Each structure stands twice: as structure tokens, then as C-alpha cells.
Amino acid sequence: MEIDPEFGTTPAGVNAGAAAAVNAGAAVSALGAGVVRRATRLADGRELIYYDDPGTALGPDRNVDARDLDARSDTAMMRQDVLTGDWITFATKRQNRVMLPSADADPLAPQTPTNPSEVPSRYDVAVFENRSPSFGPALAEAFGGAPEALNPPRGLDDLEAIGLQRTRTSVGRCEVVCFSPEHAGSFGTQSVTRARTVIEAWADRTAALSALPGIEQVFPFENRGEAIGVTLPHPHGQIYAYPYVTPRTQRLRDSIDRTDRSLFARILESEQGSDRVVLQGEHWTAFVPFAARWPLEVQVLPRRHVPDFAALSDEERDELAPLYLHLLRGVDALYGSPTPYIAAWHQAPVHVGRDTIRMRLELTSPRRAADKLKFLAGSETAMAAWTAEILPEDAAARLREAIASVPAPTTEETR
């Protein structure tokens, strides 16, 4: 059984009639910036949420998901690497996921009579639980009175202990965030209004996922381009809700402990005084970091201490939409063709470090020239000992020039 705070207990699979009943009573609520949230369920019980743009052309009704779907797969298991303490999830069902489908078979497009996709209705932004998740669908409370048999994590102390052949159930949640109903594109191809809707969705999902039992960290991200390993060209991102604090964040906590609690304030002050800043607003600063590893690497930090999307003010969300679009379009202007990247929104863990870990974007790309990629070989992959080929100051100068070559996004644009 899966438990969530809005819908209560739901079976792993429900028939179309039950889905229709849930859809008929879909929860509707108003969010910031005029965005409307409409929550419902897919035919197998997975949560689906529509986020309507302000002034949307869509009506209030949504189609029922009438597909006949198999019951959801069991939650994956994870094993601990005793040499590092890292937890490795074994989600074997992901081997069979869709690979670069054509537009008429796009699983993220709105359903048609010939395409039984994941989203029953036309939408602006849609978020739904991944059918082949790395974590979940089970949550910590769902184990009831049999934790020994199902072996869920037993809190952070349990997960941070190290031992031979330790296993735990991969509780958690993985969600897909569709930025648009169109088949191709990315976050950077959206309008300012649509970008603002996605930001509102990220904030709403961060708050909801952080409240689920057994969740320790929430991570929104976008993979863009086949060179990154993208399997769907549809403009979308994902959100992972982990049952542990991730290794990167653990190392960050250690750095804060070894320096001081105001580390992010010091980083921002240092970068703002450098020639590595590429874009700046009242609330956000984008810069190439002092020790950038990748040929293209940018971080975006809020000026005040904010742990996650849910804690952002309306003013910070409003500014982020055009600023982030301007950055992404500048990245694409570097070489005259779309650049592959990973856009990783690092957020503070749910229960630890929220007063010291500031949310930030870390955008990285392996593209080091128009026709060249950086591949991680022996030193980087095996030893995590990096060699960078481009000075951060040179990378920042080129990116500033590229950003200046594209128009600043405005709310009037229709792209």
C-alpha cells in the first residue's frame, strides 16, 4: 500500500472506474502567480497533477485515464558500498523504458486515440509519478508492522552506518515534470509565463515530497540532450525524493563543518567580486565557479539564505523565471546549436542542514567545443581527480558574450 497525505491510502493498481471516481473529485487549489493546481490519479493509482498557467486557454475539466494498466512494480532494493558508504539502488525495471520515441508515440504528450500516453488531457505543465522509478512507490509508513521482512531504512543514523552486505528497500518517490505538451524542446524554449508555472510546480512538489514519510532530500533536475543520455526528446525534467542524504550533500555538510556556517554567503560575496559573474539580478547571481570542473559549468545562487524552492518568495520566483531562461538561451548561443547539459537544483535536506545549506542551480555540460565533448576517463572516473581544460574566467567571458547576443526574455514573448 502507498500512503500520501492528500489522497490517503491507495491500492497499487486501480481500475478505470475507480480512476474516474478519483478524477471526478480532483483536488483544485490556487498557487502563486495565478497558477492553478489540479490533482488527480492515473489508472494504476499513480498521482498526476496539472499546473495551469495564469490565463490558461484550457478548461477546468480533465479526461479520465481509462487505460488498462498492470499493477505497479515492487519497490526496488538498494545495497551499500562498504568502501564509500554510498547506497546503490538496483531498479531493474528501468532497463525496459522507452528510448527516443517518435512524436506519435511520445509517452509524455497528451493522450490521443492512437497514443495511450501517460497524460490523459491537454495540459500546460503536468507532474506525475514515474512508472519505472528508482525510488518507491512504497514510502516508509507503508511497511506497517513488517519492517524486518521489507527492510526499510531506519532513519539517518541507520543509513550513515557502514557494514558488509547491507541492504534496504528503496523507499521514496520519482516524478516526471512535463514543461510543455509539445514533443520537442527544453526548459529554455519555454515562455517566461510557462517557466514561472514550472517554478511554482517545483516549489509545490518540494513541499509535498518533503512531507512524505521516509524522505530525506528532494532533487529537481533536467537532463537535456542525447549526449547526456536523454531517452525522451519531450521538454521535461524529473524530481527525485531520496530516502537518504545524497553523497554530494554529505560532502558539502563536511565542508561547512570544516569552514564555517556562513560558507554560502562567503562564496557569493567572493564570486560577485570576480570576473566570473555571467548574469545578475536583484535576487539571483549566476557565475562560473572558481574551481569549475566541466568545460561549461554555471552556478546560480539566491542572495538571501533559502534552503529550497518552497521557501522562495514570490519576488524571487518572479525574477528567476526570465533570468534562468536568459542563461539557458545564452548557453545554446555558445555554439549555434542546442547544448547538452544537466541542470541540477541542489536543495537542503529535509531534516538536517537547512540553516546552512543554500539552494542553488548547478548547470554542467561536457561540451568543450562545437564538435567536441569531454569524456570522463581514468583519473576523473576512478579517482575523482579532475583535470580542467578551460579556465573559469575564460569560460565566463565567452558565456557573457553569448548571453549578450540573445534578447532578454520578457513576459510578452510567445515562444
How would you describe this structure to a colleague?
By secondary structure, the protein is of the alpha+beta class. It folds into 2 domains: 2-244, HIT family, subunit A, CATH 3.30.428.10; 249-404, HIT family, subunit A. The chain is built from 9 helices and 19 strands. The protein has helices at 16-24, 147-150, 156-160, 192-210, 247-258, 263-272, 314-333, 378-383, 392-404; strands spanning 2-4, 8-10, 27-30, 36-41, 47-52, 77-80, 87-90, 125-129, 167-169, 173-178, 217-224, 236-242, 277-280, 284-287, 296-302, 341-346, 360-365, 367-369, 372-373. Strands 3-4-5-8-10-12-11-16-17-15-14-13 form a 12-stranded antiparallel sheet. Strands 7-6-9 form a 3-stranded antiparallel sheet, with no helix packed on it. Strands 1-2 form a two-stranded antiparallel sheet. A hairpin with an 8-residue loop joins strand 14 (284-287) and strand 15. The radius of gyration is 21 Å and the shape is globular. The relative contact order is 0.12.
